[in-house]
Every structure is written in C-alpha cells, then in structure tokens.
Amino acid sequence: MAIAKADVESLVEELTLEEKIQLVHGAVDPEGTATGYLPGVERLGIPELRLADGPLGVRVNGAPATLFPASIALASTFDPELAREQGTAMGREAKARDQDALLGPGLNLIRVPHCGRNFEYYSEDPVLTAAFAGASVEGIQSADVIATPKHYVANNQELYRASVNVNVSERALRECYLPGFEAAVDAGAGSIMTAYNSVNGSFMSENRPLVTDVLKGEWGFDGYVVSDWFGAVSTVSSANGGLDLEMPGVSRDELWEMFDIEPPEDDDDTVFGETKDVSDGMPDMTNTGNFAEPLREAVERGDVPRARLDDMVTRILRQMERIGAFDEDRSEVSAEDDGHRELAETIAARGAVLLENDGVLPLADDVDIAVIGPGVEEISTGGGSSEMDALHEVPTATGIDARANGTVTVKRGVPPIEKVSFFGGDDEDDDQQPEPTLDDAVSAAADADIAVVVVEDAAAEAVDRDDLTLPGGQNELVEDVAAVNDNTVVVVQSSGPVELPWRDDVSAILESWYPGQADGDALAAVLFGDADPSGRLPVTFANEDDYPVTDDATFPGTDGEVQYDEGLLVGYRYFDATDADPVYPFGHGLSYAAFEYRDAELVDDRRVEVTIENVSDRTGRDVVQAYVRPSNASDDRPVRELGGFTAVELPAGETVTVDVDLDDLAFSAYDETAGWTALEGPFTIEIGRSARDIEFEVTL
Ligand code: GLC
C-alpha cells in the first residue's frame, strides 16, 4: 500500500515500543549485501531498509558496480553538473542492487594534505565543496535513494578520528566546515552521517548544539541523523543530542556473524585486532547496541522522552516514504550501467590536472612509449570503506597500450607500493613476475620516444600519510628515467597534494588523482589529446613545511586534543595571508588550448560576465574563477575567497561570454556574537585562472 505523509504519523502511533527500538538501530542483513540494515516491521507493512557504501560507487558483495574517480578528481572538474550526473548514476546502481541509502557523498573539508581520506572529499574551499555537495545529493536522490552526506562535522584527519577532540572556533566552523553540509541539506539530503570525533568537547553522535540546534533547528533538516559505524558513543546523550539511528547497531555477538569471523578469545577493542595497522584510526567496535535494549530501558525510565523516540522513528519512516519504500510496485531499476562506464571515463579525464607541459603533450599517435611505474598494471584506488568491485577495470598500461599506435613497453621499475585495504587486498601473485628493476625501467625509457612514469601514493581510511613524499623509491625512479629521456611525462595518481622534487627535470606533469575504473582509458585520452585536461586544483600543492599545520598541536593533535589554530586560513587562504608561496596554487591547471581573457564586467552584485577567446587551433576547456577581496581584510580574515567559477568548453578561435555567479558566503563573515554579518565593501572581484593568476579586477 502506498503510505501518504499523513500515514507516517499514524503508523508511529501503532508501533509498539519494541518495534520502535528495532527501527533505530541496525541489525545483520540476512542477505549479507548491505553495509547497514533495518529489518522493518512486517506487522505494519514497514519494509527493510538497506544502506550501502560509498562515495565512489556502490559496494554490494557479489554485485560489482561502476567505480567512479576519487571525489577530489570530480571536484577538479569545477563542473558540478558532472557531480549531479555521477550522483544519479550511483543512485540508480544502488537502487538496482536493492539498496535504499548510499553512504555518500563524503564532503569534509581538506584541511591537512596528509589526511588519509582526502581522495573521498572535494576541496580545501567551502564554496567549491558546497557546490559539489549539493549537486551530488540531488543526483543520488533523483534515483529515489537516500543520500548520506558525511561525516558531520570536522572529521579532517584519520589518526585518532574516533577519540580526538577538535577545538575549532564557531567562526571557522560556520565559514569553512559547515557550508558543505548546509548545501547538502538545502539540496534535500534525506540523512546525514555524524563523524566519530568530538567537536569542542562533545562527540558528534551526542553533540546537541551542532546536531539539534544547528542542523535540525537552524537549517530545518527533517531527515534522519545516522551514526558512523560504531560511532554512537552513548545511549541517552546521543538520543537526546539528536542522533536518530545507530549503525551498525548489531549486538556484540552479532558482530562476529556480521564480519563472518570467529569471536576472538579476549575482548580486543577492534574486530580486526592487530591484524590491521589501522587500529589508531578505528572506533571501539565493542561499544555497540546502544540504541537496542539500553535505549528501551532509557525510554521506560524517562531518561529519553517518548516524543524523542517517536521523532527518531518518524524521521526514518518519512525518508522511506519519500523514496517509495512503501509502494508495492516499486519501480525496478535496471542494473545495467547504461552509459555509466563512459561517464566514469569522462570524469576521470576531465578531472586530470595538467600541472606542467613543455609541449611534449599531447602525444602523436605513433610514438614509441615506455610506461613505467609500480602500479601501472592495476587501477589506482584508495583504501577503506570506499573500496568496491568495479564493473570494468582498465589498468593504466592497458589503456595506453590500447590507444597507442607505436610500441608500448611496460616496466614497473620498483616493487608495488604497500597499501592498506579493509577487504583483504588481492595479494598479487608477485612471484609470477620477475622482480622489477630500476635498470630495466631506465633502459626501456632510454629506447623510447616518450617515457610516461606513473607514480602513486597509498592513502586509506583510518590512517594519515606520514609525509607528502612519494613512497617506495618512486622519486628516484622519476629522476633516473628523466636523466635518460628528455620527453619524460610524469602522471601522479595521488589522494591529494604530494611533493614533486623532480618537477623541473621533466617535460610534463599530470595530476590524475585516483581515476577509478577507467584509469588507463582516461589517461590515454588525455595523453593523446582526445580529451583536453580541464582539471583545476581544488587543493593547494606546496612544500610540506609550508602548510599551516606544522606542529603536533594543530595536527594530528596532542593528548587527544587538536587545535584548529589556523581558523579561517585553510589552504590558499593561509598562503595568501603569509609569505609562503605554493608550488601550484589553488585553481591552477593548464589546457592544450590557450585562452585570452578579453573583458569582465559586473552584471549585478552577485554576477560577473567574463569574455574569453580560445586563441589556439584546438578545442579546449577553461575554468573561469572569480575571487572576492573585501577592502577591510583584517589580519585574521582571508585576503580573498573563491566567490564562483564556470567551466566552459570553447572551439578553436571562438569567443564566448560566460556568467560567473558569486556565492553569498564570500561576502559574509560569521561573528560569534552578532552571527552572520555582511563584510564591508567596496569589494574587488578578481577574475582569473587560479588564486594566483588574476587577469581582471572589477570593483563592486
Ligand atoms: C566507516 C566510515 C564511513 C562508512 C561507514 C560504513 O567507518 O567512516 O564513511 O560509510 O563506516 O562502512
């Protein structure tokens, strides 16, 4: 039967206390496909609810799906329309695999370059993050699947993530860390996942000020707030703080069934015990079932008001009603990935950022190429809950070999890079392959017209990178290859910023992040010029010591406390406020074409019209960026903030005028007593190609 909105309320009245409790904590999925599962209440026709990871595609055991590029690659396109398309595709694939909620997008701000999950997030800038968060949520939910923006809020590191207390000013929260989530709520997100960490003294699963007062009160969020897995730290404070659903919620005994492993002899604090070197970044998995029997008792004692429990259940049932879960004739969505494979390749190609190019790119079709690097025979992905089985994998070398007309020689050069996987990394049968040697790689490079060296980092959930140095002797590999081939192209498949010490010794550098399943095809399309590399950096690349998080107190924290002392000065805002120069600034990225900025004029106080011309002989893409510089920038306010951006494709020789809409956030300041206030004009609107490459200034 189709339940109308009104029925949800009457349904809640019919539910017994036990049935309500059953709806607010997870159980083991009897079909074993979901990451989180609610059994529903058959007596009243309330169906099951299945929640599945993750931000890069749907993980359902035994049902491979499209593995999209890392979220940081998607953000590099500066084209939120692609986020909407990707969200729609992932939503459809989730639905076709009988999942009702997708546990994404991940949209925490990229505060520190070392964070192990930067690849699952968008940017260091709140305006760019908000644009992608909103579009992604709209896409996912267009498929009648509940989006689950995560992790609310200030989960900007992995080390100690389940215990660290984030000390952050209200102003920095409001201006930097919250806007992405507010945009997700404005886009209609049906749920929000709370982070493991504490913010200003209370764990996010029981943080009443941020969950009840801001999220539900100020923003009017009417969906359900779900904990991160094992992140519901308590019963009464969490329920009364505003948490609505505990995941995975299973009892301790069910835990072993869920992970399909033998119960350990002693009560170790994580399911994985010491078998994983991620224990510092994992929650206490024995702290589970807080919204099961303990919640029923708390409600009976009156510690948790019955009205609060009813609200928790209402919020969940309302989302089920919204996605048609009660409808008997639920539309069966086809499982085929209709066009999703091409979309994943398009996003990976569009998200590649050309950092340097002396003209060696694009490649001629018939060149002889040496493809070198430890990971060229696999696709490059990050570790953790975003891992999944991809429908179509195209390893880096495979894609290049398929596209090239000349000879392609493949050499790994150095051993595979050690990676962390939550699902038991497929142990490559290394013994079948001869141990890679540097000499083999160097001689292959010497004999080829072009040497393409593909390097990678190894980021994963629950761990942060120790430094920004490429691991496993890859820097030496690049230097030795560049020494014997003047046409050395380096492709960096990384989770975020890395140091590039050899950047002056090579002919081109392409940052392709984790490209997802389309890896080799997307890279080949860019290398041979079938696609114009249109990516722009959503994060600042700099020498490690120049970032603002230089002492333990600011990252990863000391004695369980981390201080966000940099306040608003995250990313490019910090570099603008100090005399440290980035290696590659926020917004940087080259095209194979060439664009001249002809004119810029204000249409009104939130829109600029910019005229650009493609003065090259080939179609290309550019991203016109507008930065807002208030006249009264004080020492703790950013010099400039991204106000807006527009990605545009332009055929050779053509001229176009594009609109760049400016976000109110760039004109606003949050004052801890007065709340939101408008920054004082006059404002200088800077139009350019990056935060450091300004072409025009107009005064507002
Ligand atoms: C993990 C992650 C979260 C994921 C969830 C379910 O610990 O923090 O992003 O969706 O648990 O796997």
Automatic annotation (TrEMBL):
The keyword Hydrolase applies. Residues 622-691 form the Fibronectin type III-like domain. Pfam families: Fn3-like, Glyco_hydro_3, Glyco_hydro_3_C. InterPro entries: Cellulose_deg_GH3 (IPR050288), Fn3-like (IPR026891), GH (IPR017853), Glyco_hydro_3_C (IPR002772), Glyco_hydro_3_C_sf (IPR036881), Glyco_hydro_3_N (IPR001764), Glyco_hydro_3_N_sf (IPR036962), Ig-like_fold (IPR013783). One of its GO terms (biological process) is carbohydrate metabolic process. GO terms for molecular function: hydrolase activity, hydrolyzing O-glycosyl compounds. Keywords: Hydrolase. It comes from the Archaea. Belongs to the glycosyl hydrolase 3 family. PANTHER family: BETA-GLUCOSIDASE (PTHR42715:SF10). This is Beta-D-glucosidase. It comes from Haloferax gibbonsii.
